[in-house]
Design goal:
InterPro entries: Amidase_CS, Amidase_dom, AS_sf, FAAH2. The chain is an alpha+beta fold and 483 residues long. It has a domain at 8-257: Amidase signature (AS) domain (Amidase signature (AS) enzymes, Alpha-Beta Complex), CATH 3.90.1300. It is 36% helix and 16% strand. The strands form 4 sheets. It has an 11-stranded mixed β-sheet with strand order 1-3-2-8-10-9-16-17-13-11-12, with helices on both faces. It has a two-stranded antiparallel sheet with strand order 4-5. The longest helix has 24 residues, at 361-384.
Length: 483
């Protein structure tokens, strides 16, 4: 029997029943990687010897009567996480020889839960792209179409899952980096509520692994099944033991509902700043139809919804000002000259990005205040609704585009070109206010490419969109392996 596309939950049950061992699962996963990954290029740092040793220890532990949530399950880890003894480069050539001595807190939690780490998955340069390619490890391709991207920045993890390279993966999300690759590759991902899962050790190479609270970024789970997301999130969630963990214990509330017919859902398919492509629009409406058929209350409009154009502008300001502070894109003087040359009437996202590159702390504080206003608006909306269904990006996976200046790239939406980074506005809808969002498969495009949508839920009620994802999976069939 082939186990490579079974869910983590099924693998755990099979090992408990004695139907398979962790060593067998690990050997099968490694054989598949060695056979197929020369084309996909998802696993950029294999760790097969240590994985086989961990699998043997897992089988020995189970023989002693031990049972942990992920005992013996093969998994992968995004390259940006520190794993003791393996390089952490973030795809940056100057750091190709950096090897941390300590695991990131989430890698430690995986090991404590009994997972077998197969290796690390590919990322874009500095995690700063919607594709996953870099000079050190090359390009990760989409398992559904090798000429298209698997997404970024957790593209290697999504491609690995779609290819059967391990049952689970951990990634991160600042600009849709969990959700977009899941959407492009036909798998599941969950962007947790901001601050729910500790991120220490998911840090640029050579920087100290401090227990820092991120402003927008989160770490989170990826899987081939909705229930597996919950299984992995329960391992990942909780405060850092160095900080809030000294006083706080996590107790996530249960999902608001257990039956599909009890959910109240707002469905969005249009954004004021960028069109939604036909394939993605069809995916949103497929999910809406399933919800209606299941008896859920579905609405298409609400006066409680925060202004989407302002939300996208605030997100862009916060995202770019933070990114440029860490990864400068030019001299401050040059950027200020370019920003000063903008028309005062230019409110395009390109203009917002440029102004954000030279924003002051006062500018950031003003944007952060407006973010709190939006958060309050979302709290009011989630008094009337349980989840929001909307796109992740306007299109399915697009062809590889390695133009050296990402600002010069364009995204084709039904034959019309738009600025490349404008496609981030849907991801930012949940990121800016720090809300949880679950990416779920929603069918195929006419070309046979996966299409996903996101389910946005109330802050710190992550189990609500996750439960809705499970119920939708039961109706739609969820993940299907690439043909």
């Amino acid at each position: 029997m082939e186990w490579s596309f079974r869910t983590a939950e099924e693998l755990v049950a099979a090992m408990r029943a004695g139907a398979v061992t962790s060593v067998e699962l690990t050997d099968e996963a490694i054989a598949r990687v060695e056979r197929d990954d020369t084309v996909v290029n998802a696993i950029c740092v294999p760790d097969f010897d240590r994985a086989r040793a961990a699998a043997r220890r897992a089988d020995q532990a189970r023989a002693r009567g031990e049972d942990r949530p992920l005992l013996g399950v093969p998994v992968t880890v995004k390259e940006s996480y520190n794993v003791a003894g393996l390089p952490t480069t973030w795809g940056m050539p100057q750091h190709r020889d950096y090897v941390p001595a300590e695991d990131a807190v989430q890698v430690s939690r995986l090991r404590t839960a009994g997972a077998v780490v197969l290796g690390k998955t590919n990322v874009p340069l500095g995690l700063q792209d919607i594709q996953s390619f870099n000079e050190i490890y090359g390009t990760t391709t989409n398992p559904w179409d090798r000429g298209r991207t698997a997404g970024g920045s957790s593209g290697g993890s999504a491609a690995a899952l779609a290819s059967g390279f391990g049952a689970l993966s951990i990634g991160s999300d600042l600009a849709g980096s969990l959700r977009t690759p899941a959407h492009f590759c036909g798998v599941y991902a969950h962007k947790p509520t901001l601050g729910l899962a500790a991120g220490r050790g998911m840090v640029p190479p050579s920087e100290p692994a401090l227990p820092t609270e991120f402003d927008l970024a989160v770490v989170g789970p990826m899987a081939r099944a909705a229930r597996d997301l919950t299984l992995l999130l329960d391992v990942m969630a909780g405060p850092d033991p160095l900080t809030l963990g000294k006083a706080h214990r996590l107790a996530l509330p249960p999902a608001r509902h257990e039956r599909l017919g009890d959910f109240r859902v707002l469905v969005l398919e249009d954004h004021p700043l960028i069109p939604t492509g036909a394939a993605v629009r069809a995916g949103v409406n497929r999910v809406a139809d399933v919800l209606v058929a299941g008896g859920a209350r579905v609405e298409r409009h609400s006066p409680l919804l925060p202004d989407l154009a302002e939300a996208a502008t605030l997100y862009t300001r916060l995202l770019i000002s933070g990114s440029v502070a860490r990864f400068p894109v030019g001299s401050d003087e040059q950027l200020r000259t370019r920003a000063a040359g903008l028309s005062a009437d230019d409110r395009s996202l390109d203009a917002v990005r440029l102004r954000a590159m030279v924003s002051s702390h006062r500018d950031w504080m003003e944007a952060a205040h407006r973010r709190e206003v939006h958060r309050h608006g979302w709290r009011q909306l989630f008094g009337e609704f349980d989840a929001v269904v909307c796109p992740i990006t306007p299109t399915p996976a697009f062809p590889h585009d390695h133009h050296p200046d990402p600002l010069e790239r364009r995204i084709d939406i039904d034959g019309v070109e738009h600025p490349y980074f404008d496609q981030l506005v849907w991801a930012g809808l949940a990121t800016m206010p720090g809300l949880p969002a679950t990416a779920v498969p929603a069918g195929r495009s006419p070309e046979g490419l996966p299409v996903g949508v996101q389910l946005i839920g109330p802050a710190f009620e992550d189990r609500t969109p996750l439960r809705l994802a499970e119920l939708l999976e039961q109706e739609t069939g969820g993940f299907q392996p690439p043909k």
